Every structure is written in structure tokens, then in C-alpha cells.
Recover the amino acids of this structure.
């Protein structure tokens, strides 16, 4: 039945009234609270620029944690000596460590002997410089929790029982879940940095002598943990971001001139390897790598064996990577390596032996099409002894090698962490890419969440 224009029939009138009331009721009961929470965000957005606000959808609130969760752990660095010798030196200069001294890069700005597990402080420093911070937590799109999860691990991991290893993270979780910021989304818009492998925070066996159980607490499962290696490869809430390298530029110009320097660099070695063998680990292919490299005049290695200090000078490592075309990156104590990032920052094409050394780790930072910037030689074939790494690499046409290297050089900015005490102008570093990833992930978690009813948590 179609109503004539100008007149509404009586039954139709009642249907319209009933429908209107029903919609109104629904609106009031369901939509208003949601709309209200959106209004809060939109209004405060408007006050800082409205629709044209470049920070729209990008506001981050930094939790003001008690110092026992960050600054005090840093101040107590000497007590972590048992498991991390020279931690105080290594986390000086805002986490960058000591300026490089002795050998290449001595006296050059931007170069530090940065420790592989120093990310907690570097990231916090970069976060303080982030352009879209807000003090109004209700208007934020994500909440950064500056808990030094990795440093805390170092402070209590050697010579402490499981309860002592778990105490600080349990304390943090109790603090967090009581905050109004947490109740808004059950913590799904919160993120933490633990600059170690995520395995270190996932001790499932209470009798194990290694690690704490931070990531296994029900609350911590809701937040996002940025680590240098993910343990769950995409199905958990631990996301991998690059290890820190030795280079921490202070300006766009320093990044650009570095890219030019590695583009112009003479690469007289076809391959190189920096690392030690793992004699106790029969799954490791490092002894085969070392043997193949030793037998080839076009491969150069720096040994890290106990008693050999060759690989302990960052300048030497960078000079070798800058003069190599391919850098071998077999897994070591875990699947990933800091060396991968040092090599790429030097413009050296990484050679992996397992997809989980990089491809299924750094999804935000590395291109999906891994053949554009790297080579994969399956580790079984190296272990079986039927593959010559050199012969495999020589099969790649020179023009393809040049193209891959140019791709690596293009990726360099997003693989390094800028000096947190300065500001890059337009170049996006690893931190910027990580924050983009977090904001996108939070949006998915909250708006595309499996449980729509949980939106009520936004009230
Ligand atoms: C730092 O060390 C002091 C003195 O040993 C200790 O009382 C305090 O609990 C430590 N703080 C943290 C966060 O570990
Ligand atoms: C937040 O408040 C602190 C302390 O009042 C102030 O120093 C800082 O500039 C404020 N930050 C923003 C983004 O408004
Ligand atoms: C974690 O998030 C879920 C919703 O996905 C929520 O029901 C739960 O209460 C949250 N856990 C904590 C400890 O807040
Ligand atoms: C090398 O040996 C392994 C194990 O026997 C086999 O899977 C692989 O296909 C071989 N690779 C080559 C290139 O022959």
C-alpha cells in the first residue's frame, strides 16, 4: 500500500507513531551512551583543530605511572648487574648508551653503542616527543603505559624466584585495572613496550627458572605489547618492532646523507657473518654457516666466540656490513637477531634461513613481499649440507641485487630509532611506524571487536 501524497491513512499513522517510539526508545537506551562517549572525543578534538586536526584519531595519552615502574628501575640499573653487565652505561643517554668510541664512527654524531635490549627507554623518550599527545585521557585514541617491562625483567631475572620475578608486573596490572582509562575499553586501547623477546614475559611453567608471567595475566592479554620478537606470530597481543641499532639520527638531513653514504659504499665482500656458533644446539646451522664462510674467499666473518672480542666493537660490525652485499642472519638464541637491523641499516641485503626470523615478525616495518629486499635459504638444506650459500647467492643476477639493495636503503629510515632528544622533520622512523600500527590495531580491536556488546565499556 502506497499512501497518497498529502494524506496519511489511519492504520499507517499508528504504524509510523509506533515505529518512531520504538526507534526513539532504542536510541535512548543504546545509542545515547555510545554517542555521548564519541562526543567527548570529538569535542576535545574540535578544541584542538576539529575536522582539519592532523591529530584526529591519533591522540595518545601517557599514563603517569609511579616511578617504581620506570624511572626507579632505571636508577637501580647497577643492581641488575648479575644478568646485564654494564647496564647503567648501556641505558645512559636516554637509552642510546655511550657514544661510539674506538674505531669507526668515533666522534660522529648519531652513533652510539646501543644495547639490543634498550628499547624501553628509547621508545619512552620518542613517545614524549610524539606530536599528538593529549593530557585529556577521555579524548585519547590510545593509552601508552610507560612500564619498563624489559628493564624490569633484567632487574629480577637472575637469582630470584618466580614470585619475585612476577611481583612488579602484577603490581602494574593491579594499578592499571583500577584506572578509569582501563574501564573504557578493558585495556584494549593500552600499549606497553618490553624491549626483549615476548617469550621473556610468557613463563607458563611456574617452576621454570626463566622469565615472568606478565603477558599471561588476564588483564595483560587485553593490551598490546611491543617486543623485539613476537612469540605468538600474529595470533596474540605481542607485536614485533625492530631492535634498536647503533644509529640514532637527529635530523632528516642525517638520515638522507647516511642513505647516500651506504649507496656509494664499496662492497668487496659478497657475504658476511657476525656471530658465534651454538655448540650445544644441534638444530642450529651456525657451525655450517661458519664453515662455509671460512672456506670462501668472498665471505668475511667476525667471530664472537668466548675470548674473542672481534664482534664487540659496533664500529667494526658496521664497517663490515657496509662493505658486504649479503649479510647472513641465521637464528641464534631465538629466531630473530638484532644483527638483521644493523645489516639493513648498513645497506646489506639480509639472508634469512627461517621465515620467522623476520617475515612473520615485523609486519608493520618490513614489506609483505619479502623477495624485494631479502633472500630466504631454508635452513634444512643448509643443515643437510647439500646447499652452498655462496652458489645460491651468485645465481641472483647483478641487476636484481642492485634493485634489492635500493629497496633495503629505502627501508632504512623505518628501521632506526631517531635520537629521542631531537626531532626528525618529515622522515618516519621505526617509532612512528610502530605508533601508526598501534593506533590501527586499537581501532580494529575496539570497533571491529568480536564482541559488539563490549562497546558498552566505552561509557
Ligand atoms: C631500587 O633499589 C632500592 C634499594 O635497593 C629498593 O628499595 C627499591 O625497591 C628498588 N626499586 C625498584 C623499582 O626496584
Ligand atoms: C600535559 O600537562 C603537563 C603538566 O601540566 C604539561 O607539561 C604538558 O605540556 C601537557 N601536555 C599536553 C600535550 O598538553
Ligand atoms: C578484557 O577485555 C574483555 C572484553 O574483550 C573484557 O570483558 C574483560 O573484562 C577485560 N579484562 C580486564 C581484566 O579488564
Ligand atoms: C637438500 O636436502 C634437503 C633434505 O634432504 C632437501 O629437503 C632439499 O630439497 C635439498 N635441497 C637441494 C637444493 O637439493
Amino acid at each position: 500500500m502506497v499512501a497518497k501524497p498529502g494524506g496519511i491513512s489511519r492504520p499507517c499513522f499508528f504504524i509510523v507513531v509506533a515505529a518512531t517510539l520504538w526507534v526513539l526508545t532504542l536510541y535512548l537506551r543504546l545509542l545515547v551512551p555510545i554517542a555521548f562517549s564519541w562526543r567527548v572525543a570529538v569535542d576535545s578534538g574540535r578544541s584542538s583543530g576539529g575536522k582539519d586536526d592532523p591529530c584526529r584519531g591519533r591522540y595518545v595519552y601517557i599514563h603517569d605511572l609511579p616511578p617504581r615502574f620506570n624511572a626507579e628501575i632505571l636508577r637501580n640499573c647497577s643492581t641488575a648487574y648479575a644478568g646485564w653487565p654494564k647496564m647503567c652505561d648501556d641505558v645512559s643517554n636516554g637509552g642510546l648508551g655511550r657514544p661510539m668510541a674506538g674505531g669507526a664512527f668515533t666522534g660522529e654524531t648519531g652513533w652510539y653503542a646501543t644495547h639490543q635490549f634498550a628499547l624501553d627507554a628509547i621508545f619512552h623518550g620518542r613517545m614524549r616527543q610524539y606530536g599528538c599527545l593529549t593530557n585529556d585521557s577521555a579524548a585519547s585514541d590510545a593509552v601508552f603505559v610507560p612500564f619498563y617491562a624489559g628493564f624490569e625483567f633484567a632487574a629480577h631475572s637472575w637469582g630470584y624466584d618466580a614470585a619475585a620475578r612476577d611481583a612488579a608486573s602484577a603490581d602494574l596490572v593491579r594499578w592499571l585495572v583500577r584506572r578509569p582509562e582501563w574501564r573504557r575499553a578493558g585495556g584494549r586501547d593500552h600499549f606497553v613496550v618490553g624491549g626483549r623477546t615476548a617469550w621473556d614475559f610468557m613463563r607458563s611453567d611456574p617452576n621454570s627458572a626463566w622469565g615472568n608471567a606478565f603477558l599471561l595475566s588476564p588483564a595483560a592479554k587485553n593490551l598490546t605489547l611491543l617486543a623485539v620478537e613476537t612469540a605468538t606470530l600474529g595470533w596474540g597481543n605481542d607485536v614485533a618492532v625492530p631492535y634498536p641499532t647503533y644509529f640514532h639520527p637527529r635530523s632528516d638531513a642525517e638520515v638522507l646523507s647516511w642513505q647516500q653514504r651506504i649507496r656509494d659504499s664499496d662492497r668487496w665482500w659478497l657475504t658476511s657473518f657476525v656471530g658465534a656458533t651454538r655448540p650445544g644446539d644441534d638444530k642450529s646451522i651456525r657451525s655450517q654457516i661458519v664453515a662455509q664462510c671460512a672456506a670462501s674467499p668472498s665471505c668475511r666473518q667476525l667471530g664472537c666466540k668466548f675470548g674473542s672480542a672481534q664482534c664487540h666493537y659496533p664500529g667494526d660490525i658496521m664497517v663490515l656490513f657496509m662493505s658486504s652485499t649479503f649479510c647472513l642472519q641465521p637464528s641464534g638464541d631465538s629466531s630473530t637477531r638484532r644483527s638483521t637491523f644493523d645489516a639493513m641499516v648498513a645497506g646489506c641485503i639480509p639472508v634469512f634461513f627461517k621465515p620467522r626470523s623476520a617475515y612473520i615478525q615485523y609486519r608493520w616495518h618490513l614489506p609483505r613481499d619479502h623477495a624485494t629486499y631479502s633472500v630466504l635459504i631454508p635452513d634444512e638444506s643448509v643443515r643437510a649440507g647439500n646447499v652452498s650459500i655462496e652458489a645460491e647467492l651468485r645465481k641472483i643476477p647483478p641487476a636484481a641485487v642492485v634493485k634489492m639493495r635500493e629497496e633495503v636503503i629505502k627501508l632504512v629510515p623505518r628501521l632506526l630509532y631517531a635520537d629521542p632528544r631531537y626531532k626528525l622533520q618529515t622522515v618516519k622512523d621505526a617509532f612512528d611506524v610502530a605508533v601508526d600500527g598501534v593506533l590501527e590495531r586499537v581501532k580494529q580491536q575496539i570497533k571491529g571487536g568480536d564482541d559488539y556488546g563490549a562497546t558498552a565499556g566505552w561509557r
Summary: Residues 380-381, 384, 386-387 surround 2-acetamido-2-deoxy-beta-D-glucopyranose (ligand 4) (CB under 6 Å).
